[in-house]
Design a protein that fits this description.
Helix content is 28%, strand content 30%. The chain has eight helices and ten strands. The protein is globular, with a radius of gyration of 20 Å.
């Protein structure tokens, strides 16, 4: 599909209290539902859409992330944005195939910091995280809410960082959409070289039940992500719980 003219798109000013990217996301969702772009087909390129809506690439990407969070499209670096269904899904769906996808996910869910505490890691936590038993770490308890529905909590997490790294990011974490590991990299010479992820079935513990709005013992999926730098140094661990009745985790396998 060639470049779109601005006359083809809705370019009204956003309603009071609504961001421009949210208006664009709603318009894209409307047009997908109307069949303007069919399932299996691709949306126009990001430069074409940004020009047509008269916004920056970053604003356009925020809109696409919201449409992706609704389950309407899938985005792959270098391949474009493909339509995967005409109407939004009711459950949260995660499709993570790369570190870029993980960073993108961090920008599609709103983080809230519930508690920050200094902890001495016991043996059980050390086994779970891969961090040394007896070491002192900062544990940050957070939730992530849906970008579409701010009242819906998608996950409850505990993030483990060193006291030194916490000093660097503590003033930024609450208002930032970036991953904690990404924030640390921005303040140091580290880069995220690889992420080791484990997924297991578990149940909702007492300290997460209220935040997730689920009863104690309800089914959940637990994701443990260990962030490694280029020297194989483990510098952030995130242990996240997702309600089992609303979360779908999808892995895409492709030939090399």
């Amino acid at each position: 599909m060639g470049p779109l003219s601005r006359q083809q798109l809705q370019t009204t000013e956003p309603p009071r209290g609504q961001a421009r990217y949210q208006v664009i996301a709603a318009d894209l969702a409307r047009r997908i539902a109307a069949g303007e772009w069919l399932v299996g087909g691709f949306l126009p390129s990001e430069p074409d859409l940004a020009a047509a809506y008269g916004v920056s690439r970053e604003t356009l990407r925020s809109a696409l992330r919201q449409v992706e969070a609704q389950g309407l499209v899938g985005r792959r670096k270098g391949q474009g944005t493909r339509v995967i269904r005409p109407t939004p899904v009711t459950e949260f769906s995660s499709r993570l195939a790369s570190i870029d996808d993980l960073v993108s996910y961090g920008q599609t869910a709103v983080r809230s910091v519930l508690r920050v505490e200094e902890v001495n890691l016991d043996a059980q936590t050390a086994r779970l995280t891969g961090l040394p038993a007896g070491a002192v770490f900062i544990r940050v308890t957070t939730t992530r809410q849906s970008e579409i529905d701010a009242m819906r909590v998608e996950s409850w997490s505990r993030v483990y960082v060193s006291t030194e790294d916490w000093v660097l990011i503590k003033d930024e974490i609450q208002g930032s959409e970036r991953l904690v590991a990404d924030l640390i990299c921005a303040k140091t010479d580290r880069t995220i070289d690889r992420v080791v992820q484990r997924v297991r079935a578990t149940t909702v513990p007492a300290d997460a039940a209220a935040a997730l709005d689920r009863p104690i013992g309800a089914l959940a999926l637990e994701f443990t992500r260990q962030y490694m730098d280029r020297n194989d140094g483990l510098f952030v661990v995130v242990v996240s719980l997702h309600p089992g009745d609303t979360f779908v985790y999808e892995t895409i396998l492709e030939p090399r």
